[in-house]
């Protein structure tokens, strides 16, 4: 996602800037003296190094201060990192006007500048995810499956008996974006190559713009954001794709309300909080942005892990064949795919898309039960990767053991072991009431995709490829190397 050249430029620019504007950081740090710092004693140098990736320093902090808070600097601020059920429970229990999940996310992704102030300040699309999307997943499963198999069979001819190289991220992004758009805007738009291409580019551009704005202190964001974003332009382009559909539906409101059209666009229109084409389009763009990166990178890891360990293809295939024979490609079948679920969860546990999750902005001074005060203006977050590799929480934490969560389910079928469940030991989707509301759909898409792949294809790695997917870090983000390839061919034994 980020080329090396642009990383170097970012580092240079920030070194300069941070040197000049690091004063507020030191002022705030005095109030944070009770919380130990990890990394170099020179905070701004540490902050600049953290732009290149934070997982190493966070692991170091976790090794030293597990279950107690420690802090790392960003260019102009501090992130206080907390772990352990007790502290995480205190963070979860804090009221929104004290520890704000919405403001934390807005700041990290610069939502107001990239998606507009309305999307940032009134995220009612979250409510629609909960009220509509999550409740309609059973109806949507066969539809999503249809989109995934249509995409896969367009990309890979069923005549392909020969092994052929496949660029994993490109492939996965295509499938994820079509599956997502089938839910967001429905047919035929979800298959429009122009719209899909635009959406993928939009998601990448948005992250890059956010990273550039992040090189500046918060109080100048409103002034400089325009130089690094092209929000107006993006929305204008997106309206060209969505506008005709929105207008057409506005003219046939009654038929649509009766339930003939059932997709996110329609739920937004039925809600009526916003009614102009631009407003509705911005919500759809927010969904496109939120759905692509994490889902695609998680799935990509899983597909790579499967290619690296092809011995697991047969047991996964047997599970999928058995449940689909019984229930078809339904939600009931997907719920019974324990091995698929466990495989995805294990792959995410070892990989992960971000070294920190549960990011909260401290809006009013916050006091932990041990008396330690976190001053207003900092961030609090949880070290997901470090927690996922903790040997007290996971037996042989560095081993890839794809069916470990099937075993942990036990005979009682402990549902807490499924990927979508929240806990302070597994933080793929955050934790507590602000956990990612789209996780149910994200997991369904991932399970359907992995199930479809094992039932139709054989995978393996090229000779000499590394046993786990290479990654590229930037700040708190961990991205799989976009050039990674695997080998794929039509399933040989039916
Ligand atoms: C629109 O969404 C908001 C936020 O969830 C909700 O409070 C409101 O009742 C919805 N309105 C309609 C007409 O569905």
TrEMBL record:
Gene3D superfamilies on file: Cytochrome P450
Principal subcellular localisation of the protein? membrane
Q: Name the Gene Ontology molecular function terms of this record.
A: heme binding; iron ion binding; monooxygenase activity; oxidoreductase activity, acting on paired donors, with incorporation or reduction of molecular oxygen
Q: Which GO terms describe its cellular component?
A: membrane
Query: What is the top-level taxon of the source organism?
Result: Eukaryota
Provide the protein's localization: Membrane
Q: Which residues cross the membrane?
A: 9-27
**Residues that coordinate or bind heme:** 436
**Which co-factors does it depend on?**
heme
InterPro entries found in the cross-reference section:
Cyt_P450, Cyt_P450_CS, Cyt_P450_E_grp-I, Cyt_P450_sf
CDD domains noted in UniProt: CYP503A1-like
Keywords on this record? Heme, Iron, Membrane, Metal-binding, Monooxygenase, Oxidoreductase, Transmembrane, Transmembrane helix
Family statement: Belongs to the cytochrome P450 family.
What protein name does the entry list? Cytochrome P450
Organism field: Pisolithus microcarpus 441
């Amino acid at each position: 996602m980020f080329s090396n050249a642009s990383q170097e430029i970012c580092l240079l620019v920030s070194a300069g800037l941070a040197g000049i504007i690091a004063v507020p950081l030191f002022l705030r740090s005095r109030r944070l003296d009770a919380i130990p710092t990890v990394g170099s004693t020179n905070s701004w140098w540490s902050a600049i190094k953290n732009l290149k990736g934070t997982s190493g320093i966070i692991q170091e902090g976790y090794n030293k201060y597990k279950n107690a808070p420690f802090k790392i600097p960003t260019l102009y601020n501090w992130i206080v990192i907390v772990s352990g059920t007790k502290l995480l429970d205190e963070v979860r229990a804090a009221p929104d006007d004290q520890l704000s999940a919405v403001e934390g996310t807005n700041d990290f992704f610069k939502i107001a500048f990239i998606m507009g102030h309305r999307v940032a300040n009134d995220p009612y699309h979250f409510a629609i995810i909960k009220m509509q999307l999550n409740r309609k997943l059973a109806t949507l499963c066969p539809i999503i499956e249809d989109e995934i198999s249509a995409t896969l069979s367009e990309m890979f001819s069923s005549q392909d008996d020969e092994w052929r190289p496949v660029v994993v991220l490109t492939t996965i992004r295509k499938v994820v974006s079509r599956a997502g758009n089938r839910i967001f805007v429905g047919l035929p738009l979800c298959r429009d190559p122009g719209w899909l291409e635009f959406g993928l580019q939009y998601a990448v551009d948005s992250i890059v713009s956010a990273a550039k704005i992040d090189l500046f202190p918060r109080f100048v964001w409103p002034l400089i954001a325009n130089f690094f974003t092209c929000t107006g332009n993006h929305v204008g382009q997106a309206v060209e794709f969505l506008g005709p559909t929105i207008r057409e539906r506005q003219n046939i409101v009654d038929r649509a309300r009766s339930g003939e059209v059932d997709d996110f666009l329609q739920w937004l229109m039925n809600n009526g909080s916003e009614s102009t084409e631009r407003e509705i389009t911005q919500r759809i763009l927010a969904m496109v942005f939120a759905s692509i990166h994490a889902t695609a990178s998680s799935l990509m890891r899983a597909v790579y892990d499967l290619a690296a360990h092809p011995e697991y293809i047969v047991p996964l295939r047997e599970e999928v064949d058995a449940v689909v024979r019984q229930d078809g490609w339904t939600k009931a079948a997907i719920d019974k795919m324990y091995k698929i679920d466990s495989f995805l969860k294990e792959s995410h546990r070892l990989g992960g898309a971000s070294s920190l999750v549960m990011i909260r902005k401290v809006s009013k001074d916050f006091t932990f039960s041990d008396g330690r005060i976190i001053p207003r203006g900092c961030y609090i977050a949880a070290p997901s990767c470090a927690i996922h590799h903790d040997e007290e929480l996971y037996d042989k934490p560095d081993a890839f053991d794809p069916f470990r969560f099937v075993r942990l389910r036990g005979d009682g079928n402990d549902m807490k072991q499924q990927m979508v469940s929240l806990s302070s030991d597994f933080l793929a989707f955050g934790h507590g009431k602000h956990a990612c509301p789209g996780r149910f759909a994200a997991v369904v898409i991932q399970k359907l995709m992995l199930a479809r792949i094992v039932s139709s294809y054989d995978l393996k790695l090229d000779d000499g490829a590394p046993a786990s997917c290479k990654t590229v870090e930037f700040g708190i983000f961990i991205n799989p190397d976009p050039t990674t390839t695997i080998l794929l061919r039509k399933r040989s034994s039916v």
